[in-house]
From TrEMBL:
Official protein name in the record: Secreted protein
Keywords: Signal
InterPro entries cross-referenced by the UniProt entry: TAT_signal
Signal peptide range: 1-32
Length: 414
């Protein structure tokens, strides 16, 4: 399967008309043709609440605004370390094909929950994106990596967090900070606002200008059961103080939800992973969602075009195709695609808990020429591969298992 759609109104404004009572932004009637992977935009949890953007602004009237570079990164409290020996641990790991840079999580500084990032079983890293996605290079002169984590088991109710990592100063010891993802809440008629964690799997992240998009799996873990993608607004980041620090579980910074795109089509896509594609000449940048299926079938990959403002053009999918079984991350590069996949089809915490029972294998990198036919094996990745992000003939990826966690970059063989 490989289908595509050319929008008849490609140059339209980014934001469709809002539905009067539901808080949803729907595609216009002219664009609302049948589409199995259509997304609808939501700006608030219900008609009884203010828009999330408005609630965030209300929060910032009593809590300090925070700048990603000047506040979060220049005052970062954690420092990454060496990738070490790729053959460590019980698995059959090898150095990823084309490896040219990487780091491990801070081996000394505990997070607000008293856990080390490289060892914790309460948080699992999943998605990765960079300022190359967001702005074509740097943000305020800094090359920044964004990694998403989700809370697991007794930490599920603490939601999800983003690690912002500055790899510009000393790449061998990159500094980073965790930021909690939150839903700002303000009821209609109220002049005050609060916030709560966003309960989501955070399986992938794509940086698009001032928005950080995070993938939502449908079902119990998603803040909205339909599944889709949630956009967090980097221009509304907040520093937490006083009694609000407890609500943020000890984190210094929170990143507010701005809008979500929910599944509205018949395709029932699992929004497992997420990436950004800036590589198509004379075409809009786009969000690319890939699907993990635990039954061994090939997952679907779907593209939605973005307007220059960072919103989806219309919510109708532009293209879809099939990937590989057990894909954990996918990027579209020109006419091709690359996939990160597990060798055995194991994933997440279940796999890490079983590390003592078997030797997990290195991940696999697959190349899908023309995004049609069968992908071909293109190299190896770290044990427990997750999301991918493209960076000028290089790929960023990360490993999720405790004691085997790394963030790394590889050179592509084209």
């Amino acid at each position: 399967m490989n289908t595509s759609r050319r929008s008849v109104i490609r140059g339209m404004a980014a934001i469709p008309l809002a539905a009067a009572t539901s808080g949803l932004l729907m595609p216009s009637t002219a664009q609302a043709a049948s589409d199995g992977f259509s997304l609808a935009m939501r700006l608030s949890p219900s008609q009884n609440h203010r828009y999330w953007g408005t609630a965030a602004d209300t929060l910032r009237r009593r809590l300090p605004a925070a700048d990603l570079v000047k506040d979060v990164l220049r005052q970062a409290t954690r420092t990454g370390g060496s990738v070490g020996n790729w053959r460590d641990g019980p698995g059959t790991g090898v150095e990823p094909t084309g490896f040219d840079y990487g780091f491990s999580w801070d081996p000394d500084t505990k997070d607000p929950h008293g856990q080390l990032d490289g060892k914790t079983t309460q948080w699992y890293p999943q998605g990765i994106s960079t300022s190359v996605d967001g702005y074509g290079g740097t943000v305020d002169g800094r090359k920044v990596i964004a990694v998403s984590w989700y809370g697991y088991e007794n930490y599920e109710k603490r939601g999800a967090r983003i690690s912002f990592i500055d790899v510009t100063g000393d790449p061998q010891k990159p500094r980073y900070e965790h930021v909690l993802l939150v839903e700002p809440i303000q009821e209609e008629g109220s002049d005050t606002a609060t916030f709560q964690p966003v309960i989501m799997h955070a399986g992938g992240v794509a940086w698009a200008g001032n928005f950080l998009y995070v993938a939502n799996l449908p079902g119990r873990l998603a803040p909205f059961k339909q599944g889709g993608v949630s956009a967090f607004d980097l221009t509304r980041m907040i520093k937490v103080e006083g009694a609000d620090k407890n609500k943020a579980f000890g984190y210094d910074y929170i990143l507010p939800l701005h809008h979500v795109y929910e599944n509205r089509g018949s395709g029932k896509l699992r929004h497992s992973q997420l990436s950004l594609d800036r590589t198509r000449p004379n075409e809009p940048h786009s969000l690319v969602v890939s699907e993990f299926l635990d039954n061994g079938e090939r997952g679907r990959v779907v593209r939605w075009d973005l307007a220059p403002t960072g919103y989806l053009v219309d919510g109708l999918s532009e293209e879809d195709w099939l990937s590989k079984p057990y894909v954990q991350g996918a990027v579209a590069v020109g006419k091709d695609a690359y996939y990160a996949a597990n060798d055995r089809g194991t994933q997440g915490p279940a796999a890490s808990e079983a590390i003592g029972a078997f030797a997990p294998k290195a991940g696999q990198l697959w190349l899908h020429k023309g995004r049609s036919g069968d992908p071909k094996l293109h190299g190896t990745l770290a044990i427990g591969p997750e999301d991918l992000s493209y960076d000028a003939d290089r790929l960023w990826s990360l490993a999720e298992h405790p004691d085997l966690r790394r963030v790394y970059r590889i050179q592509l063989r084209r």
